Write a sequence for this structure.
């Protein structure tokens, strides 16, 4: 019985949306069911390895209905099987439960998604900026943030040779 | 949205914690190799709490990946894990080719495998050498760097750049290789490298100081390694037999006979031995591959409209000229499916994957990297707490944190 | 200097100091990225920068003469770089190694500083991404030449340089609504938390 069938059996066939592209088998999960699905995948189906969390901003994406996507790449260490779980979020408050309790590896990955996209992970023990300076006001990987920034990188006083 | 810190730092000052003091380590410190920073809370010499602070080299790689096309971005991924650039290129183009559904030519697969393993050797050499350097053994570092220069020579012969070759292209390679290159590799794996490997082993394997400072330091158990998403040599040193080259064979890896090197201890010493043995396995792969490089083209067929035609085809045939034009005009280039996919390869540090979202244009809509160094560094506080401050360089050296990959 | 020597003695002392300094330029390896590995390659056996008297890499800025900025410098790192530069004793020089340090290189993004010469004075630029070790050695030789030609014993050649020498600040070329002042105090960026916490 495949992972998809087991998920369908447990959560009903309407709630989850399955697809496959190349080798990637994935499910789109609604936010309310997200934590249940993840813990089911970990405890019952043996996906004990969280390979990656990727944030995506679908602002200019063709036919996108939601603003943000967060993709969890799961793997089963003993069978080397992979499964991808995707959650779609929308703007005023992109909020998602944290999976830190299930996989401790999610710690910094979630912080990075928060830093780059502003997606808040509810229940994360230490959610603050990780790559950008703490006082930084924007979320740089959002599509409405320009590649060259808004002038923050020039915002330092130069040192004159005679003074140093 | 206001940015509030949720962790208390430093530890709350209660009566029994008055004697703790805080030490700032980095961002410019020789043992950090590049730029990362640790704020250590110490009790005497013992580390009670370690708070890593990263981002001192965050240069917006992923934002650039949305701006440059699938071939141009290879120059940027080169600079990600800069001690084995080729493996990043292979990982990036593996993901792109998975997205586009390209099957490479056998010759290209073999050449990519060979250069990937050479890069793995040079990465492990630097890691082992620098770990020894931080623990006081400069000779191993000099031996290792001498070998890296030989690998540089091989890369320079093939791509013209010794450090960042930018050698792979969508569906193929920049150039084909020649016989002299094959001879250089034969010379390297038969004469130069085994000798240097033996020298480094002799210096370190039974070195009392090196063993005392690495054994039992920074222990990562098997459950922790899986739960904290460790991969590559770090996971294998903890007894997780996970290697993408075996689990999801890409390139030509399923043609070769090699072992996945594992250890049980999970400490710095085990990581060192796993790296040393992996170099030997890489040599085994290269020696099998280099004698069996298939003939034929290195790029997929021109009719697929995916690869850059060579100079002759561009100048002498109308199809080649059109193809060249199509790939280099800003509004044309590739037309991948409007889809998203993740594809991973085994980098020198661990699972190096890319999650590419495509909107059907010539450049990625989102090019997410799965950086092994980032994930390994996130478990650093767990590994170091309870050890002394002199163990910090040992643990950092054994995890092989590359700042550019850490921060991107 | 309080004591005023006659000019001919001063010029002889200058000559002597320059000879001594030029052949023992101790680098402060401010290595951030790829160029740092080439800097290590320059120091190791094949290229051996010790032949030119610059092998004594000191990681404490107090002991160094020349800061080699190898690799890109990003927003979070600029205050650190400036502080290390200020901690070095006079006379001091700076080599900007590689395209990223000199101009931002391929990284024209929100975080990367477009050339360190916008924030600290630079003496020698080394092109290349990363430069070959030979190029770095050439830069050290050029710097030795510069020290011999312009150096003085009490570093008075720097006194007149009171103007900003780098390129025009980029932020002013942008329209006012494009620029934004970052909230937060960047001078304390090397601390994890403000002191009042």
């Amino acid at each position: 019985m495949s992972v998809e069938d087991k998920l369908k059996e447990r959560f009903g066939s309407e709630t989850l949306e399955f697809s496959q592209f190349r080798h990637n088998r994935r499910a789109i999960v609604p936010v309310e069911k997200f934590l249940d699905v993840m813990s089911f995948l970990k405890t019952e189906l043996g996906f004990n390895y969280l390979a990656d969390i990727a944030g995506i901003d679908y602002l200019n994406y063709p036919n996108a209905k939601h603003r943000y996507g967060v993709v969890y790449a799961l793997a089963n260490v003993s069978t080397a099987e992979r499964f991808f779980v995707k959650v779609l979020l929308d703007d005023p408050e992109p909020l998602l439960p944290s999976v830190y309790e299930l996989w401790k590896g999610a710690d910094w990955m979630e912080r990075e998604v928060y830093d780059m996209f502003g997606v808040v992970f509810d229940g994360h023990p230490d959610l603050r900026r990780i790559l950008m300076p703490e006082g930084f006001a924007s979320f740089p990987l959002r599509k409405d943030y320009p590649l060259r920034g808004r002038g923050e990188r020039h915002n330092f006083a130069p040192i004159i040779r005679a003074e140093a | 949205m206001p940015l509030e810190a949720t962790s208390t730092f430093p530890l709350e000052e209660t009566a029994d914690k008055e004697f703790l003091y805080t030490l700032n380590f980095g961002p410019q410190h020789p043992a950090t190799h590049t730029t990362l920073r640790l704020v250590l809370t110490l009790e005497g010499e013992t580390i009670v709490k370690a708070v890593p602070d990263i981002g001192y080299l965050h240069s917006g790689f992923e934002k650039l990946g949305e701006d440059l096309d699938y071939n141009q971005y290879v120059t940027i991924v080169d600079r990600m894990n800069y001690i084995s650039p080729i493996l990043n290129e292979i990982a990036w183009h593996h993901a792109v080719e998975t997205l586009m559904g390209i099957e490479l030519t056998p010759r290209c697969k073999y050449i990519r495998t060979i250069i990937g393993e050479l890069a793995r050797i040079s990465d492990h050499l630097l890691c082992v050498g620098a770990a020894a350097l931080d623990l006081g053994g400069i000779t191993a570092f000099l031996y290792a760097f001498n070998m890296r220069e030989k690998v540089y020579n091989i890369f320079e012969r093939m791509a013209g750049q010794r450090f960042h070759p930018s050698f792979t292209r969508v569906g193929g390679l920049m150039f084909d290789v020649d016989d002299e290159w094959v001879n250089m590799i034969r010379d390297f794996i038969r004469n130069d490298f085994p000798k240097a490997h033996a020298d480094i082993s002799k210096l370190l394997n039974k070195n009392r100081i090196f063993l005392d400072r690495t054994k039992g330091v920074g222990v990562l158990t098997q459950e922790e390694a899986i739960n904290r998403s460790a991969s590559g040599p770090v996971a294998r040193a903890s007894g997780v037999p996970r290697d993408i080259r075996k689990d999801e064979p890409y390139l030509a890896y399923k043609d070769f006979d090699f072992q996945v090197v594992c250890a049980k201890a999970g400490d710095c010493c085990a990581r060192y031995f796993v790296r040393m043995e992996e170099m030997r396995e890489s040599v085994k792969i290269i020696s099998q591959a280099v004698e069996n490089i298939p003939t034929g083209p290195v790029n997929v067929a021109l009719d697929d409209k995916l690869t850059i035609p060579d100079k002759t085809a561009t100048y002498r045939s109308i199809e080649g000229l059109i193809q060249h034009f199509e790939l280099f005009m800003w509004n044309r280039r590739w037309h991948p499916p409007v889809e998203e996919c993740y594809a991973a390869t085994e980098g020198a540090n661990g699972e190096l994957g890319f999650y590419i979202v495509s909107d059907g244009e010539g450049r990625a809509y989102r090019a997410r990297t799965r950086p092994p160094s980032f994930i390994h560094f996130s478990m650093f506080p767990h590994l170091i707490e309870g050890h002394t401050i002199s163990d910090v360089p040992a643990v950092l050296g054994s995890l092989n944190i590359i700042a550019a990959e850490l921060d991107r | 200097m309080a004591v005023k020597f006659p000019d001919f003695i001063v010029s002889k002392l200058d000559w002597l100091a320059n000879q001594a300094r030029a052949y023992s330029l101790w680098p402060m390896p401010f290595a951030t990225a790829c160029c740092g590995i080439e800097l290590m390659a320059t120091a190791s056996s094949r290229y051996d920068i010790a032949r030119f008297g610059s092998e004594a890499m000191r990681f404490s800025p107090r002991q160094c003469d020349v800061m080699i900025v190898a690799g890109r410098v990003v927003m979070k790192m600029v205050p650190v770089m400036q502080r290390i530069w200020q901690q070095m004793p006079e006379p001091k020089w700076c080599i900007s190694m590689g395209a990223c340090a000199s101009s931002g290189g391929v990284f024209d993004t929100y975080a990367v500083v477009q050339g360190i010469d916008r924030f600290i004075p630079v003496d020698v630029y080394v092109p290349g991404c990363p430069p070959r070790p030979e190029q770095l050695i050439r830069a050290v030789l050029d710097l030795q030449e510069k020290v011999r030609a312009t150096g003085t014993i009490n570093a008075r050649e720097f006194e007149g340089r009171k103007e900003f020498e780098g390129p025009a600040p980029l932020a002013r070329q942008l329209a006012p609504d494009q620029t934004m002042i970052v909230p937060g105090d960047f001078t304390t960026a090397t601390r994890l938390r403000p002191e009042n916490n």
About this structure: The longest helix of chain B spans residues 106-134. The radius of gyration of chain B is 22 Å. Residues 247 and 366 of chain B are 26 Å apart (CA to CA).
